[in-house]
Design a protein that fits this description.
heterotrimer, A mainly alpha (339), B mainly alpha (310), C alpha/beta (354), B: 310 residues, mainly alpha, 14 helices, flat, disordered C terminus, C: 354 residues, alpha/beta, eight-stranded mixed β-sheet, four-stranded antiparallel β-sheet, 11 helices, 12 strands, 23% strand
Chain lengths: 339, 310, 354
């Protein structure tokens, strides 16, 4: 260790007084939980892209049928089974209305003397697939959102009551859940749909019948965790009512978990609706959802692949976007939570 | 542990009893007799047929008979297939479903573990992003969309595999198995990735490193087992997913399995097959979840011994 | 005394989203054969990072050696390949971690975990390794070692698990044992047992120990020499007596004053004001100046070099510069210094150096 004693000007050794409270200053601005979560989710490119995709699909679900020159129900038999044709893009050799007929590539629009454009083509009854696809999206989203909302309300209430009141109430409520949890969702949904008139309401009821259980278990676990924490006990010591404790102390803390779980319920509901419609238990004609459209398209896949293509793309995009957004929210709101 | 198992078995039976009862009464509550909708018989003959199926007896008697038969494993007779026993119908078709189901599960879980491991060991590289992308697609794209695409490209357009119909033996099982594998693949790879990353950052991995273990030993001797054990917990949901998938995939590939039979029964209102298959599915899933839970207790030493000492 | 490890001008940074964190900013120390060197300092002072960098256990993608060497028997550990490093870890240098509850693999029987380094580094058969593992368990005071080889970590208490971790660390008679706060997570009574065990074992196998802690009571108990770290640098290093009874750096004064003691009558414990420096943008000059009551102008401008106090005792503070004004340390520290022959406050009569 070299001791290089260079000459140092004497005034350097003057004492300085440093206010030590100054050293305690925290240089970073403090962020609220939600600001922090927003900053984190903003960094997640996949989640942000998902928000845009979802916004686009949701807007299109309502605007799409309106901007299309054709409406979804009108059947124009002479316009049946037309491939997609889009103005502008047709010059590029894609979406130009050319399809195969008896093994040969022909412009079906010319052949059938159709001088209008069907952006997504038409189905076997000459209905505009563009309008139909977006109206189907509307129905699928409606079912998913309503089902997720009902799951959330029932799940939070049931899990919250069970966890907060505990004891005998909790015991009883958990026995019920334990039995219900054993019933496979698939089985109960199929049974309910056989029993009820097929339709949007029936599907929502069938999906929510056991859908809330997952949420209630998570909420109960969270409530149990928080209700014995010091800040809740402190509030109780100060005479806060149950209502106040729940609304001011417990709910804000479990909100993140509720949101994340709901975000994953939505794609599950979309999938279940599509699945049921695909196996023929879902909506009945003339009602159409993405699932029934895919089912229709599947039947003619060899000849009219476009009928299957667009609803499948929309459905897949919806699922991917909701899953990615759910992942992003989970990372942002509760980094420790898995699955 | 024994106490836990007994408790679980009791709950299993309660659940099954409830499902069976619910199924029975739902079917009874359906408008019209299954026979009247299945065939157009004059009333006199209808009565004969109804008597043959015991449908003329009071509901409680029918219920008691139904439950007794169930206990014997008799699921009743099909209305559609000339009085064939439902149990037999299911058993005849079970093999095919089990084959593609287990192939799909094994393929999916094995590939999923591989992808998850790669993603975790090469975190934040192109490998990781690629495997995450596959997983997200696997979870998001419904199996019937995926199956349709597979069939369209690999079978119809390129003719690599048979389109379906189960005419080419094992070759026919490949595409359906791949379609079924996507779900388990996605679930397993995401699960293993999260678990591995957590395990790799744990203290005992640092200790293993400080012992001089190399990368391979760290990943496989120390981390892998710890990450793999919790995967057992998702096997239950995976089995349920496979079942759901098999309904549509057997339909798409025209495979003579129980899923396809079930969907056909729904179309033709063959209630005894619907009831029988529903119950069969329930038993299958409930038993799987039970076995998985017990298995987890046996494999994870932490649970095994703390449970055993009680 | 034979030098076994030499850390020279070590600088290491972490790359984080917020920027480059300069966790170690020029650390120098030597470790001699058979001695125990304690490294003390508050959280974030760089003491754990220093030892993890000796073992090269820091995440490779986010940490970077900026400068300096770590010479172990003449080999520079910072330059070794992963393969060469794996041969040293667990054999020549091994480590004990802070939390015994999490540092054992939960799904592997403990016997296998002890045998692992033996099989890895020494060319012996499984049965020999097994026998040695049993001996090691006996050595660390585990009752019925034979029977416990097949058991899993959760079947042991915290203290027992730390004994197992020590057994693993000692499996190949390492030349250096790094103990990263090995007693912090344990009950006080267990702490004492583990410390006794470590002292015993050190005598038996003549290993050198680097002991990281923030507990000065433990330091007094086990160490031969002490290095005080602050803000990614060593600010004072010396023998235990020198650091405890003749401290020179204001930070060491603060540390010692904040240690509860039975023989002082003071009721209030001293707390060092402020927070540790932000190593994303380390302060110019003496990192402790902002929290020090003894700061001088130069402290804010230039990093103090090491000033020699004795052959074994160095401190990095401008107060030791010959031109610096004489200041008196806090009263409690002065009391301590009065007892130490060689300090300028020594008032003893029993044969001082002056």
């Amino acid at each position: 260790m070299s001791l290089d004693l260079k000459k140092i000007p004497a005034e350097s050794f003057e004492r300085v007084h440093i206010d030590s409270s100054h050293a305690e200053r925290i240089s970073k601005p403090s962020l609220s939980f939600w600001q922090d979560a927003w900053l984190r989710i903003r960094k997640n490119k996949a989640a942000i892209a998902s928000i845009f995709i979802l916004a686009f699909i949701i807007i299109m679900a309502f605007v799409g049928p309106m901007v299309s020159p054709h409406d979804a129900e009108t059947q124009t038999i002479t316009h049946a089974n037309l491939p997609p044709k889009v103005p502008g893009l047709e010059k590029l050799g894609i979406f130009d209305g050319v399809g195969t007929l008896a093994g040969k590539e022909v412009d079906l629009y010319e052949m059938k003397k159709v001088d209008t454009y069907y952006w997504f083509g038409t189905d076997g009854l000459g209905r505009d697939m563009f309008s139909r696809a977006w109206e189907g999206t509307q129905i699928s989203l409606l079912i998913a959102f309503v089902a997720a909302l009902i799951d959330m309300v029932i799940g939070v209430a049931y899990g919250g009551i069970s966890g907060y009141y505990g004891g005998r109430v909790d015991d009883m409520m958990q026995r019920v859940v334990e039995i219900l949890y054993g019933i496979p969702t698939l089985v109960i949904v199929i049974l309910m749909l056989l029993f009820m008139e097929p339709g949007v309401t029936a599907i929502i009821i069938a999906i929510t019948l056991t859908g809330w259980i997952g949420m209630s278990r998570i909420v109960r676990g969270q409530v149990l965790k928080f209700k014995n924490q010091e800040f809740v006990l402190a509030s109780r010591t100060l005479g806060a009512s149950n209502g106040r404790i729940i609304s001011k102390h417990i709910l804000p803390n479990i909100l993140g978990v509720i949101i994340i779980n709901t975000m994953f319920t939505i794609p599950t509901a979309i999938f279940f609706e599509a699945f049921l419609s695909f196996i023929g238990l879902g909506l009945q004609a003339p009602d159409a959802s993405l699932g029934t459209l895919i089912n229709d398209g599947y039947k003619v896949i060899r000849f009219q692949p476009h009928i299957l293509l667009y609803p499948s793309i929309i459905l897949s995009l919806l699922m991917i976007a909701f899953n990615l957004l759910g992942d992003g929210l989970r990372d942002a709101l509760d980094p420790k939570m898995k699955d | 542990m024994t106490k836990y198992i007994i408790r679980r078995i009791v709950y299993m039976f309660i659940t099954l009893f409830l499902i069976a009862t619910a199924t029975f009464f739902l079917m009874k509550a359906l408008p019209g007799s299954p026979i009247s909708s299945a065939s157009k018989l004059p009333p006199s003959q209808l009565a004969v047929v109804e008597a043959k199926y015991g449908l003329d007896q009071p509901i409680p008697v029918q219920y008691a008979k139904y439950m007794l038969n169930l206990a014997k494993g008799d699921l009743g007779n099909s209305f559609q297939f000339k009085n064939a026993s439902v149990t037999e119908l299911i058993m005849n078709r079970l093999g095919v479903s089990v084959l593609i189901g287990s192939q799909g599960l094994i393929l999916g879980v094995a590939l999923g573990i591989l992808l998850g491991m790669i993603a975790a060991l090469r975190q934040n590289t192109i490998w990781d992003y690629g495997s995450t992308l596959i997983a997200i697609i696997g979870i998001s794209i419904p199996s019937f969309v995926f199956a349709t695409l597979l069939q369209y490209w690999l079978a119809v357009e390129w003719s690599i595999f048979p389109v379906g119909l189960w005419k080419d033996g094992w070759m026919s099982s490949i595409l359906p198995s791949i379609a079924l594998a996507m779900g388990p693949l996605a679930t397993a790879s995401r699960f293993i990735r999260t678990e591995m990353i957590e395990v790799l950052s744990s203290d005992y991995i640092t200790l293993a490193k400080s012992k001089g273990a190399n990368g391979f030993e760290i990943a496989f001797k120390h981390a892998f087992r710890n990450a793999l054990i919790p995967l057992i917990t998702v096997l239950g949901p995976l089995a349920a997913g496979l079942l759901t998938g098999s309904l549509v995939i057997e339909q798409i590939f025209a495979i003579p399995g129980i899923g396809e039979q079930f969907v056909k029964a729904i179309m033709s209102n063959d209630f005894s097959i619907i009831m029988g298959t529903t119950l069969f599915f329930s038993v299958f899933l409930i038993v799987i979840i039970f076995v998985v839970d017990v298995l987890y207790g046996i494999i994870d030493p932490r649970i095994r011994l703390s449970g055993g000492s009680k | 005394m034979e030098k076994i490890l030499e850390v020279k001008d070590l600088e290491l940074s972490f790359h984080t989203f917020a920027g480059e964190v300069k966790a170690i900013r020029g650390v120098n120390f030597d470790l001699f054969k058979g001695e125990t060197l304690a490294i003390v300092g508050e959280s974030g002072s760089g003491k754990s990072v220093t030892t993890k960098s000796i073992m090269r256990l820091l995440p490779e993608h986010s940490s970077e050696f900026k400068n300096g060497h770590i010479l172990f028997n003449g080999k520079d550990l910072t330059k070794l390949t992963d393969k060469e490093m794996q041969k040293i870890r667990g054999k020549d240098i091994s480590m004990i971690f802070q939390d015994p509850m999490t540092s054992l693999n939960p799904t592997m029987p403990i016997g296998k975990q002890i045998m692992e380094p033996i099989l890895k580094h020494r060319n012996v058969s499984k049965s020999v390794a097994h026998k040695e593992a049993v001996d090691l368990l006996r050595l660390v005071g585990m009752p019925k070692p034979e029977a416990r080889m097949k058991q899993y970590p959760h079947q042991f208490s915290g203290g027992q698990r730390q004994r197992i971790v020590i057994a693993i660390a000692l499996a190949c008679n390492p030349q250096i044992l790094i103990a990263d706060e090995p007693t912090t997570a344990l009950d006080v009574t267990i702490q004492a047992q583990i410390l006794e065990l470590m002292k015993d074992l050190q005598k038996k196998i003549n290993t050198s120990i680097i002991f990281i802690t923030h507990d000065l009571g433990v330091v007094a108990n086990v160490a031969d020499r002490v290095a005080v770290m602050y803000g990614g640098k060593i600010v004072e290093i010396g023998t235990v007596d020198e650091i405890f009874y003749n401290p020179q750096h204001p930070y060491t004064w603060g540390l010692l004053s904040s240690m509860p003691s039975l023989d002082t009558a003071e009721e209030k414990l001293y707390a060092i004001p402020g927070t540790p420096p932000d190593l994303l943008s380390p302060p110019k000059g003496d990192a402790f100046a902002l929290r020090s009551d003894y700061a001088m102008k130069i402290d804010l401008e230039e990093i103090p070099p090491f000033f020699k106090v004795s052959d074994t005792h160095y401190a990095a503070t401008w107060l030791l510069h010959p031109d610096a004004p004489q200041v008196d340390p806090p009263a409690a520290i002065m009391e301590r210094m009065k007892k130490y022959p060689g300090s300028r406050y020594y008032d003893g009569t029993e044969g001082g150096t002056y």
